Amino acid sequence: MMKKILIGFSILFAFCSGTAIAITFAQTPGTAGYLLERDAEVAKNEPGPHDGGGPSTGYLFLKRRRT
């Protein structure tokens, strides 16, 4: 009985180890970096909200996505 339990745990350990190794090698490293956006580049002039008086400027940061 003890021998069967030991064999079962050994098989489970081998399976989990193999899975962990496969996941590690399957991951591709991401591109490190940053996205720099200046206010003047992302500013968008729009009419005032709720038909208010005068124009409004919205800043749409993070609209562009890194590829």
Write the layout of secondary structure elements.
Layout: H1 2-26, H2 39-42, E1 43-47, E2 55-59
Antiparallel strand pairs: 1-2
Architecture overview:
The chain has 67 residues and is of the alpha+beta class. The chain has helices at residues 2-26, 39-42; strands at 43-47, 55-59. A two-stranded antiparallel ribbon has the order 1-2. Strand 1 (43-47) and strand 2 form a beta hairpin. The longest helix has 25 residues, at 2-26. It is rod-shaped and about 85 Å long. The N and C termini lie far apart (56 Å). The mean pLDDT is 81.
Short description:
By secondary structure, the chain is of the alpha+beta class.
Task: Give the key terms.
single chain, 67 residues, rod-shaped, 43% helix, 2 strands, alpha+beta, two-stranded antiparallel ribbon
> What is the alpha-carbon Rg in Å?
28 Å
What profile does the largest beta sheet have?
Answer: 2 strands, antiparallel
Q: What's the arrangement of strands in the largest beta sheet?
A: 1-2
Given helix and strand content, the structural type is alpha+beta
Count of helix runs: 2
